[in-house]
Amino acid sequence: MLAMSRFPSLVEVLMSAPAPEDFSYPPLRPRLSVEELLAAKNTQPIRSLDDLAADTFESDEELEEFLAFTYAERHRDAA
């Protein structure tokens, strides 16, 4: 039989700070409309696909390496 005096950590009582008056978690934030959120970020509407264009890869070879890596990773566990 285990003697509890040998294992004081098993009978320790955890203490915590007193609870705040407001029990909401996470703290409530004011609700904003979509228009208000967009205005706060100073966003502009997308007018064409050119607005989304980005030069992510410096060369065609770099793009090909990325595509080969992505393909291999997606099919790695399929075999």
Structure description:
By secondary structure, the protein is an all-alpha fold. Helices cover 29% and strands 0% of the residues. The chain has two helices and no strands. The longest helix is centred in the C-terminal third of the chain and has 16 residues. The mean pLDDT is 80.
SSE topology:
Elements: H1 34-40, H2 60-75
- What is the N-to-C succession of helices and strands? HH
Look at the helices and sheets and give the structural class.
Answer: mainly alpha
Number of helices: 2
Unreliable segments of 5+ consecutive residues: none
Average residue pLDDT: 80
Number of strands: 0
Rg of Cα set:
28 Å
Strand content: under 5%
Q: For the report, how would you describe the main beta sheet?
A: none
What is the oligomer described by this structure? single chain
What general form does the structure show? flat
Helix content: 25-40%
Q: Termini, distance in Å?
A: 52 Å
Give descriptors for this structure:
79 residues, single chain, 0% strand, 2 helices, mainly alpha
Would you summarize the structure shown here?
By secondary structure, the protein is an all-alpha fold. It is built from 2 helices and no strands. The mean pLDDT is 80.
